[in-house]
Amino acid sequence: MKIARFIVDGFACYGQVEEAEVRAIQGSIFGDYRVTGLTFPLSRVKLLPPTQPVNFWNIGLNYQHHLESRVEEYGEGLRERIKHLNPFLKGSGSSIVATGEAIVIPPGLPDFIDYEGELCIVIGRPAHRVSPEDAPDYILGYTIADDVGAGPVWFHGDFTNWRTKTSDSFAPVGPWIETEMDPHNVDIIVRVNGHEEQRGTTRDMVRNCYEIVSGISRYCTLHPGDIISTGSPSPSRPLKPGEVVEVEIPEIGVLRNPIVSAPAS
Amino acid sequence: MKFARFRVDGHDYYGQLDGDRLRAIQGDLFSGDFRVTRASYPLSRVKLLPPSRPFNYWGIGENYKVHVDFRKIELGEAITRREGRFSPWYKSAGCIIATDEPITVPVDCPVLEYEGELCIVIGKRASRISEADAPGCIIGYTVSNDLDGGGAWHLSGLWKQKMCDGFGPVGPWIETEVDPHRLEIITRVDGREEDRGSTRDMVHNCYAIVSGISQFCTLHPGDLITTGAPGLTRGLNPGEVVEVEIPGIGTLRNPIVADSEA
Predict the structure, then answer these.
(1) What's the topology of domain B51-258?
(2) Is the model's pLDDT at B258 over the cut of 80?
(3) Using one digit for the tens of pLDDT, what is the confidence trace for B211-241?
(4) Are residues A91 and B220, on separate chains, in Cβ contact within 8 Å?
(5) Rounded mean pLDDT of A52-58?
(6) Which chain B residue lies closest to A58 (C-alpha atoms)?
(7) Which of A62, A66, A263, B154 has the fewest C-beta atoms under 10 angstroms from its C-beta?
(8) Domain coordinates in residue numbering, chain B
(9) Rounded CA gap, A66 and A7, in Å?
(10) Is the bond preceding residue A175 a cis peptide, omega within 30 degrees?
């Protein structure tokens, strides 16, 4: 079942997506709800990011191929570091944008971004110290994320990824949540300006979704609506304003975002 | 004026502190469109909550020279090269707890250190604002304890170091009328003073911080920014009680407890 968050006539709510329509949901998708008869064409609504998370976790380097190319670039020390789970936070609030919204490169950063098309877990119940075996019970479903970045931190003289990863609009998520799929057997396809650039599979994850949920929940409670982006299969290349990046996971849908430069203030 | 977020009889409110009572407000504190009602509760009857539910909880690294010099002993050149640099980092809204709530030391945490700090509370949306406009976007200030899982955890990524459940006490309330750059920060453990600093010694002041973050990351009403540890610290032990007092604002107090689940 596909659940979207959307706004129509100034009113935001959740709805079940069926073909080219969305049927409004009454209640909470994290608790009791029912699908009503109130239906809108998808073309008439504006899709919002699927949740408003307390925390938006991100796993770096979770695919062997991606790791190998980073080791080539940055040295063998990287291998040691990813032996341990090391998530970072992507930022809530204005970092997160929906499908269709622009990735805006701010003044003060060079005029390019890196994309990273990823499978994204959506948490359904509060999860505190859950085992990998129990983790599926805490997952509502899955969506798509593009872990946009502005290059390595040291490129800008920084020591934290505060603006390279957390700037406004650097966290596209969507288009909706798919509640019934096996996350460990799907393709992740990235297209730029309509041309396929990358194709990977979640079969190649180093840590699987259940291990990730268990590992984070050991120290940090996961809240309903929290999202965890699980890494990209391959390294990226810089994209420039005017280009359009799409991330498709066939079982879910397509997340599509144009890249623009911010007007200088 | 002091405004606290509190829970009584199963409902959450904002209230204005009036002596030892809280007078519930009706409306939206952050927009300024509110009135103070006559419904008041003694402080002893309510449970204080963290002063806001932010989208974003930011920290600022290496913002006091005394603290940087202290960390050099352990971290050496890794800290030296960061000196002076504007270094916001993302702490996590999920780790926030209120005054009087217990801080659990994870069973495998090598050492849990306190860091009593001044915390900015954002009042109005701030995006690419100047330093001159920053005061108008700040509703007030509160107290934070930016706990730090140290030792070997300093090498294993920021998440366990800074974002574990309970590593972000904030409170007890928001003070709206205080000069943030003339405040003392006093940290006590079991009633004994352990560290004292002054916000006069900030490397990057509050207005530069708000302006700086807002160039890239919009700040929203209720967002929190903890502005850096001023001095020394040490590991805390289960059974101890840590207090951070900022005269002019109030005292944030949290007991340390052992991990119940090994």
Answers:
(1) Fumarylacetoacetate hydrolase; domain 2 (3.90.850)
(2) yes
(3) 999 999 999 999 999 999 999 999 999 999 9
(4) no
(5) 96
(6) B159
(7) A263
(8) 1-49, 51-258
(9) 37
(10) yes
A168 in contact with B, Cβ within 8 Å? yes
Q: Which residue has the tokens 């204080």?
A: B48
Across the interface, whether the CB atoms of A226 and B165 are under 8 A apart is answered: no
Question: Tokens standing for A32?
Answer: 């009791």
Residue B184's nearest CA partner among B89, B118, B261, B255 is: B118
Which of B55, B93, B216 faces A163 most closely, judged by CB atoms? B216
Q: DSSP class of residue A75? A: -
CB pairs under 8 A between A and B: 99
Domains of chain A in sequence order: 1-48 (2.30.30.370), 49-261 (3.90.850.10)
Residues of B in contact with A160 (CB under 8 A): 61, 87-90, 158
Which residue in A94, A216, A221 is closest to B217 by CB distance?
A94
Q: Given the cut 0.90, state whether the ipTM is greater than it.
A: yes
CB pair distance less than 8 Å for A166 and B163: no
CATH topology (fold) of B1-49: SH3 type barrels. (2.30.30)
In contact, A73 and A59? CB cutoff 8 Å: no
Whether residue B44 has pLDDT greater than 80: yes
Q: Point out the residue among B95, B127, B220 whose CB comes nearest to the CB of A220.
A: B95
Higher pLDDT, B75 or B187: B187
Average pLDDT of chain A? 94
Partner B, chain A 89-118, Cβ-Cβ below 8 Å: 89, 91-95, 106-109
Please give the full DSSP string across A131-190, using - where no structure is assigned.
-TTTGGGGEEEEEEEE--B-S-GGGGT-SS-TTTTTSTT-EEEEEEEE-S--GGG-EEEE
Per-residue pLDDT tens digits for A180-239: 999 999 999 999 999 999 999 999 999 999 999 999 999 999 999 999 999 999 989 999
Q: Let me know: does B182 contact B141? Beta carbons within 8 Å.
A: no
